[in-house]
Amino acid sequence: MSMSDPLGDMLSRIRNGQMANKTSIECSYSNLRANVAAVLKDEGFIREFKMQEHENNKKVLIVELKYAEGRGVIRQIDRVSKPGCRVYTNVKTMPRFFNGLGVLILSTPAGVISDQKARASNVGGEILCQVF
Predict the structure, then answer these.
(1) Of 53, 70, 94, 131, which residue is most buried, by most CB within 10 angstroms?
(2) What is the DSSP letter of 81?
(3) Stated pTM of the model
(4) List of domains in the chain
């Protein structure tokens, strides 16, 4: 059975892993998932991520979750642009999540980047998810 929203699955695994106080989660590997994990690491929401190969050349992305004072660092993580309803923005109309305290992750022509880097680069794109 094919998965209709692989990125949404990864975000749900991160959310559920933090609620269960897991140290790490596993999900199947894709370039988009790895790029989103890289942005989460750069912004300080996860500790580390790596790719491993299992039997039959199956790649797995392992994300190490981050905790502070017994709580998960990620308070809220939501998918914005879904396969049935894509959400695009430009620099002028780009929303601020939690008045700039949260981070939007965008897919742009410059790659998958955070909203702060998109504003600095003056580039818009598809809003993949929002994290606080």
Answers:
(1) 131
(2) S
(3) 0.95
(4) 6-131 (3.30.1490.10)
